[in-house]
Amino acid sequence: MIRRIEKTDSALLSSARKDFPDCWSKEMIDSAFEGGRFFGYLYKDGEGFAFISYSLSVDTADIEDLFVSPSLRGKGIAKELLTAAIKDVREQGRTIVFLEVRTDNIPAINLYTSFGFEKISVRKKYYADGDAFVLKKEI
Ligand SMILES: CC(C)(COP(=O)(O)OP(=O)(O)OC[C@H]1O[C@@H](n2cnc3c(N)ncnc32)[C@H](O)[C@@H]1OP(=O)(O)O)[C@@H](O)C(=O)NCCC(=O)NCCS
Q: Is the Cβ–Cβ distance between 58 and 19 less than 8 Å?
């Protein structure tokens, strides 16, 4: 069962940094919530948690983080979160979704391309230690 993320989830969400160092810090998440255009969905059970977060701009959305605890991977949870996020973005009237993904992150690239995201460019040194593909999907 998934539910929307809330401001009070920021400590939990940022704890993903232990397994996923690219994840936003608590300060970044708190500040994004203050901006009022930050949304997402959370899945939680006894073993761990998973979430997706995204920001809306005038007519586009940016997926910021997508994380599934290692013990919960391979069960379709990321697919469920991404499906919910895309539905919400569409319902909020945005028609284009962007995201950055490490060029060597095969599981995530497979997931996004299976949803119809397309590579539109490479951002060299987007991460301190690596490059990113920019992916785009029209919804
Ligand atoms: C990427 C990630 C979110 C996938 O989560 P998940 O819940 O295991 O993914 P799902 O079970 O929903 O799988 C969905 C699809 O992703 C792809 N995928 C997932 N794990 C994969 C793996 N180990 N190898 C290759 N493809 C994989 C497949 O296309 C899969 O579809 P399929 O099962 O029909 O083949 C998870 O591995 C994760 O949290 N990684 C660390 C954080 C991260 O890299 N986030 C993305 C940042 S842009």
A: no
